[in-house]
Write a structure and sequence with these properties.
Length: 370
Amino acid sequence: MHPKKILIVTNGFYPEISPRSFRATELAKELVRQGHEVTVCTHFRSGIEAFAAQNNFRLLDLGSLTWPKPVVKGSGIELLIRRIVSRFSSLLLEYPTIQLIPLIKKALKNEKDYDALISIAVPYPIHWGVAKIWSKKKPVAKTWIADCGDPYMGQENDTFKPPFYFGYLEKKFCRKADFITVPTINSIKGYYPEFHHKIKVIPQGFRFEDITLYNGSLNQDKIIFGYAGMFIPGRRDPSEFLNYLNSLDENLKFEFHLYTTTPQFVTPYVEASRGRIIIQPIVPREKLLYELSKMHFVINFENVGHTQTPSKLIDYLIIDKPVLSVTFGNLQSEIFQDFLKGNYQQKMILPDKDNYRIENVASKFIALIS
């Protein structure tokens, strides 16, 4: 195949630790490996220039998000007010990531002659910014692929639905994009029906050969299991499960290790756990997978609905550990007890690993480029 000239526009990128950063970073590396000319437009971060040189892609500075984030600190009524301001400035105004729209306009003003532009959300202002400058008269690229993680207007796992007026921005980018890519077939339901014909399913992808897993003996003195990901109260909610763990006989030897960016939702349960619930610091993905591979099994906290699929399931697939899926409001303690005994008959069934090999994922993107 003739090499393509590809522009990736993304807010998240190496060395940031997030699902969208992994998506953009792995895709850029693999497209270069397959012989394509890649430019990545993103925020400059420490170490990113050396990383780009090492992996043979060009960098284009997206600029920095300079609008100040609402500060959430203090106590009592002050803390409550700050939390409300932070939450609703994000919900009602998409603040501060709405600044991405003018940043993208400035960064891409002189870019042209690409075979494809791949914009990667979240946050969705990435797509909105590209839609703002996308023009048939002066195209940046022949083909625009808008890659999405979770749906925006059709999301099911936030406490509040996005305001109706953001639907205008969603429809605008969906009309202009040639293709919309989503990670699972169930994600399609989260988008307006008139755009379903544009949607292609391309899952998250990783280079399995880059991952080192633990191959020693598992701990024989206690059962060790873990979870990696964020929490959402009332949805991806751990409270029922953690209360159950803390109710178990104190002589039952286990450790539950949590790697999360939302520790505030689990901290209240740690002290009562008598050392059996442990919050771990956030670590690079390669280190995380190695640590999870030392455990007996891992936990998945289910989302509400079916349009959003936790990206952590791909990590769990890579480490090849039994997965116990926990649904808030429907705790099945007998299945957990089976897991403690090494009976994994009720483990979560995961898809074929080959679906997530980065070489296959990158080829699916290339197939969309005319």
